Amino acid sequence: MEIEHQGCLIHFRKSLNRKIKSELNKIANKIQGMIIIETPDISDLALERQIEDIMEPIREQYGSYKEDVMKTFDFDDYSEASNYIQDLRKKAKNYPKAIRRYLADRFFNIYRSLILYMHWDYKDKIQSNNNLSESKIGWCASKSEKRKYRTDIGFFNHAISRIKNLGKI
């Protein structure tokens, strides 16, 4: 029997926020460089104000991209969320390259595991994140045991060693 992995919404949201913040910082740095080249004698305060004036609509635009993605988790039905994601794929073609690539690599591939809790088979049986299980591992396991579970190979090796040790009583 194959077990489906439940993706964690909290970690996905944090990861998306980090990506957007990183992109906004890159844009702000480019803008700062252009302003300094155009007006080298500008004061620090004037520079900050000018950057903020330029960055405000850009931040709002990136905020709307984030809202579009996070709206996926507002649905109550798995099929509605899946349909919305198909529409989001089309809409994302107009997003900036970095956000498009991030969504292609980190969201569209795994979205099923992120919305698994909406599926009727799992309704009210699993949480929308896996923090509870992560916390249990974090509280109970030693550092070396945590490292074993980081990769599939580590988990497999750990399971095999446990099976071999069952014979030794």
Number of strand elements: 0
- With helices defined by DSSP (H or I, 4 residues minimum), what is the helix count? 8
Residues in β-strands, percent: under 5%
Write the H/E string, N to C.
HHHHHHHH
Main sheet: strands, sense, barrel:
none
What is the overall silhouette?
extended
Ends: how far apart?
29 Å
Short account of what is shown:
The protein is mainly α. The chain is built from eight helices and no strands.
Q: Can you offer a commentary on this structure?
A:
This protein is 69% helix and 0% strand. By secondary structure, it is mostly helical. α1 runs antiparallel to α2. It is extended.
List the helices and strands and how they pair.
Layout: H1 9-38, H2 44-70, H3 78-91, H4 97-106, H5 111-114, H6 131-140, H7 143-148, H8 152-166
Helix pairs in contact: 1-2
